[in-house]
Specification:
Protein name: TetR/AcrR family transcriptional regulator
GO molecular function, one term: DNA-binding transcription factor activity
CATH architecture: Orthogonal Bundle
Distance between the termini: 63 Å
Largest sheet: none
Mean pLDDT: 91
Helix content: over 70%
Low-confidence stretches: none
CATH superfamily: Tetracycline Repressor, domain 2
Structural class: mainly alpha
InterPro entries: Homeodomain-like_sf, HTH-type_TetR-like_transc_reg, HTH_TetR, Tet_transcr_reg_TetR-rel_C_sf
Keywords: DNA-binding
Organism: Kocuria coralli
Radius of gyration: 19 Å
């Protein structure tokens, strides 16, 4: 029997996570059944459990981590050179707007984090990493553009990065739940917040 390559395993896991994500988006993490997930993948139950021995609970965490990693990657890649707070913040929001599936999965994941310790842990680690990314980018900018010392920049960003994180989270919640959500108006709000930092 030919040996399965690591790349093949990674691709197969990715395809299972993608199919499971579709089920979770429709039914929620709690509502989707393994039967539905298996049917969506087109694979046998044995093949699914071979890649995810923990079954649905392991798939939930894998899907949550995938969504959270995508957000971090968006935030990391959107930065311009030289860094500009307004352009970065608006750029991340525009990237999220272009991926409504991701935005919805984030909202579903945040809800699950309230009741699932493993998802809660994954979300906590993600938020720490995202906050660290924001801190690094904005601290360096504050030193270069606002003339703050490293210590002053650290104090300033400790407050300001919370506002930035709230803008990102607020967009996800409002865009998914608020009837008649006005994306462009929200971008203006984000620009105002970024300008306050200047």
């Amino acid at each position: 029997m030919p040996k399965v390559s690591e790349e093949y395993r990674r691709n197969r896991r990715r395809s299972v996570v993608d199919a499971a994500t579709g089920c979770f988006l429709t039914e929620g993490y709690r509502g989707a059944s393994m039967h539905e997930i298996i049917a969506a993948t087109g694979l046998s139950a044995g093949a699914i459990y071979n890649h995810f021995p923990g079954g649905k609970s392991e798939l939930v965490v894998a899907c949550a981590r995938t969504a959270l990693d995508q957000v971090f990657d968006l935030a990391a890649q959107t930065a311009s050179a030289p860094f500009d707070p307004e352009s970065w913040l608006v750029g991340v929001l525009e990237s999220l707007a272009a991926q409504p599936r991701l935005a919805r999965l984030l909202l579903v994941t945040w809800g699950e984090a309230a009741v699932d310790p493993e998802v809660h842990g994954a979300l906590g680690s993600h938020l720490e990493a995202l906050r660290g990314l924001i801190d690094d980018r904005f601290s360096a900018w504050a030193v270069e553009q606002l003339g703050l010392s490293d210590r002053e920049a650290a104090d300033w960003v400790g407050m300001f990065s919370q506002a930035v994180l709230s803008v990102l989270q607020g967009w996800v919640v409002q865009s998914q739940l608020l009837p008649g959500f006005a994306h462009e108006a929200y971008l203006d709000y984000a620009r105002t917040i970024a300008a306050v930092g200047e």
